[in-house]
Amino acid sequence: MENTLIQWNCRGLKANYNEILMLLSSVSPSVLCLQETLLKTSDSISLKQYCLYNYISTNVEKASGGASVVVNSKLPQSKIDLKTPLQAVAVRITLHKAITICSVYLPPNSNIDQVQLDDLIKQLPEPFIILGDLNGHSPLWGCAHLNNRGKLIEQCIGKHDLCLLNDKSFTYLHPATGHYSSLDLSICSPTLFLDYEFKVHDDLCGSDHFPTFLTSVTPVTSGQIPRWKFSKANWEKFNALCHSKLYPDRFINLDDPIAEFSSILLQIAEDCIPKTSTNLKRNRPWFDEDCKSSIKERRAAIRTFQTSPTTENLPRVKIFRAKARRTIRQSKKKSWQSYVSKLNSRSSIKNVWTMIRKISGKHKTSTVNHLNKDNSETASENKDIADTLADAFSKNSSSSHYSKEFQKTKQQKEKVKLNFKSTNDEDYNKLFTQRELQDSLNKSKDTAVGPDDIHYQLLKHLPLGSMEALLSIFNHIWSTGVLPPSWKEAIIIPIAKPGKDSSNASNYRPIALTSCVCKTLERMINNRLVWFLESNNLVTNFQSGFRTNRSTNDHLVRLESFIRDAFIKKEHLVAVFFDLEKAYDTTWKYGIMKDLQDLGLKGRLPSFISDFLSDRNFKVRVGSTLSDLHQQEEGVPQGSILSVTLFGIKINSIVKCLNPGVDCSLYVDDFLICYRSKNMNTIERQLQQCLNKLHDWANENCFKFSTSKTQCVHFCQLRKLHNDPVITLNGVPIPVVEEAKFLGVIFDKKLSFIPHIKALKNKCMKALNLLRVLANTDWGADRKVLLRLYRSLVRSKLDYGSIVYGSARKSYLKMLNTIHHQGLRLALGAFRTSPIESLLAEANEPSLSLRREKLALNYVSKVKANPKNPVNDVVFNPKYETLYEKKPNAIPPLGIRLKSAIADAGLKLESVREQSISSIPPWTIKQPNVNFTLTNDKKSTTNPLEFQSKFNELKLKYPNYTAIYTDGSKDNNKVGSASTSELHTSKVRLPDNSSIFSAEIQAIDLALRFASSIQRKNFIIFSDSLSVLQSLYNRNMSNPLVQQLLIKHHKLSFSKNIIFCWLPSHVGIPGNEEADRAAKSSLNLNEATFKLPYTDFKPLINTFINSKWQISWNTVVNNKLHAIKPVLGDSRLSYRSVRKEEVVLARCRIGHTHVTHSYLLKQEEQPECVFCVEPFTVKHFLIDCIDLALVRQKYFNVDSMFQLFNSVHYENILLFLKEVHLYHKI
Known about the structure:
Helix 1 links the parallel strand 1 and strand 2 (31-35). Strands 3-4-2-1-14-13 form a 6-stranded mixed sheet, with no helix packed on it. A 6-stranded mixed sheet has the order 5-6-7-8-12-9, with no helix packed on it. It contains 42 helices and 36 strands. With 1226 residues, the chain is of the alpha+beta class.
């Protein structure tokens, strides 16, 4: 970014948008001031990496005048509110100093007086620069004569002691006469006169005004932080240097081993991995040789006219200006089409989303405005802004933020010393293992680096010896309980809260960037802490935030059920939605430690957390500038791994404030309480008692409820008039509102969900706009990518909360159907008249009603696996079921709504296996020894005899081991497992519809049972299920069957040596073939009593939903697509690499094309074939038309549309359409 200011009368921002992009790209100015932007209030214009401030003329008839200031988003900035009738906009920015930039446009025929100019200048904070087209003539700045406007400007410059930066160069070329003049002025405060040099550009850039440049003699510091370029890393060199320099013995007996480790690692990284430049380059892929040539011609025409201003040369300027503009537009269009067309099914997921972010204009910017300080001054310098924010964040976490009553309580309580002494024999206090370190790194995501500049990728690429060195350092820190000082320092990135005043420092959210090395150890500790809390049932059952197998849906379903039950009982329900002020920033550190002690934790774990929370410091970063070091007295750092768990511990006791009968929901810090009764006085009394207790709890635990944001909703369907509740929090009445958003879903007082559905529709419409950009029917992304994007960007929004809002009336839910259908129509490229049923069938995407039913069934099966979840009782033991049956018009809660669907789908939910916490600490469970040697050869390219030979070689390595072979089998719905050896054969039939994964696990379980039943010590278990063996090796505890198997293996490993080994199936290995035969024979046994993971029920649910859809599809026999695709499913023929071909094929399959069905839109008669005198349909020109028979026989000879699209290669269909000149008419 250059410290250059550009001024230009662009004669239309939209018209010369591409020229503006080229100016920004070639110069990278700090500021661009534009005049005559010709914008309307309805226009939406954005410029990548720049913020746009506009003055838009109020002329309602047409766009006219206007001024804009375009500021680099990396610069601290704030808009100046001007009160003037002049067309002016001003922004205060920080360059080498704080400067006010004002862009002004004074139309030539408007009446401007001295008072208006004086008033404008008085409103501009000094120092300032005024840039603009003032339409005044004076010899002072290079004009041939002086006019009244020029006199006025001269007087203004003299009166206010301002300086004129112009050097009398011409800035305007009259398009009709070819006369030059100087209308664009640069006027500044005297203190800036020597800071800038004036220059006029040599190109008009598509306008009749030349851009003018003010180049500073003082460079501006870049706000860009260099980042590692891992794509160009030399990892071989990195590994070699790590081997030689980062070995365990090197860090023994050092005072600060992690500092030494980090320093060496950084040196190695700098030798092997390049970094990005601090100067941000603007890429212009569309700027090709044609663009360069046309601009070169335009500049040459201008130079020719300047040297020879004749009437013959003036038209050449206009001609080449128009040619350049046309060339640039065409080049940009072609480049855009080519770029979008790169999105196809072969693109990696990462590349797809990178392109989507670029296309959608979602650029990473962290603009921080100038800030208002407490002493009425303005912080405008980067350092001053950073310090102001740091002061605000520090105050939020200081004791002064607390009430005086709590400060006294705090001082008194903190006098009591906490005792965490222990012999460290507890499982959670044991030293860490290499496996825990590797698991921690595997779970990490590539987040921003902390103060030490060490990225997760550096840690993930460490060789084994360096990993061991890092582990020994971690265990040293764990044993001593003393953290390195560098781990207690954070870099704070301020993020402005949306919709808030960005000039107020309190309206920024602090996001802490801490050491990735520290976070790696934090994750290991957090895993142990969470296991301890969950296995001992220490977390309140009402907390669903960041807990395994819990989600926001749990509380949404509970709240909806409470309200439905109140309605059916003709009761009132009042829900209070709480807001905690700066919850993370103010969390009481001593309170956390006291809670840890009360929970029974002692030894290394709480000692580490105590040191982790103490003496924390931070610096705020604005651009590349850091604030002074500030202390974080209280609170947990946002962005830290441990913070969420520690905050959850501190808020855990909130539920103890509730009276019996008062329900609550807690998701991290989102909290609500509700109570229902026919008597409003009873509700008020119950809730007020809880509110008083909650107020006392907040004071005792150093939390503060926001009285302005806490609100309540009175849910009621009673027709007669009734009073709203009157309840208070800390003496302040809680406002009663019509609706409230809870966990992303809007609950209105009648529970109609209309406000939520409308808001959801608007949200999805914005996401659909991106698909419109990508889904041109002639070019663009392919169908597979578009459907994937639709599901990710739009359908995911429709899915969230659908199991709750899906209970709304069908007439309300219809509003969302249009979103679903539009998305599919765009992805397929289908014609506008295409039937809805055809869109769904062609995209293989069920209707939203079926989709909601599928999600609901999947949800209840998951809930069944978690009996401790409070929503379990709401779903499976609903109240008032008989009452709902008597009132069929009443909408029942989820559990009753799904009862018939569960029965129809054949879901035996009593067979769902419970998801439980491992009884053995997961980090102590021994990792199974799994041999993956035979996976080195691909089964598809390796001869079976070669596999047999390698298997025999492998078996010879284990001469004293008893070989056990396992296999699972599935035939239709029947599923069985078997385990065989020379000594035994064990078989079992699993419940119908079990997954093959579960069958393979059960087969290995049979093998372990056999191994435990005999005296032999050494066993090798062969399985052909790679996924099961990988789950065992990675100790995947999320599947309850895998967890059970790991625990069984762990217990058995103390007395037996067990090795697992993968082998390929059906390659002639005798033991595997015998196990396969035994597994197949097990299908004839009686079903065993066996519970399954809830995930095994998903295929059954999918089959049920698909069968309902198929039944509905079978009823539309007259549908044109039904004749081609009678059975629903994905069609491979539909996926082509060229977008146009996909669209043509899809429209032909659906039977609705432009040439056959545009008459419906034009309200005309249906077209007829001129030769056959029959309706001109897709079937007619593809199958029936006699006139096209000879051409048709060259490519295919079929009698029906079904045969055509199921047996003829798509290329032949396309070639036929091209030859009969219909390809481009479809």
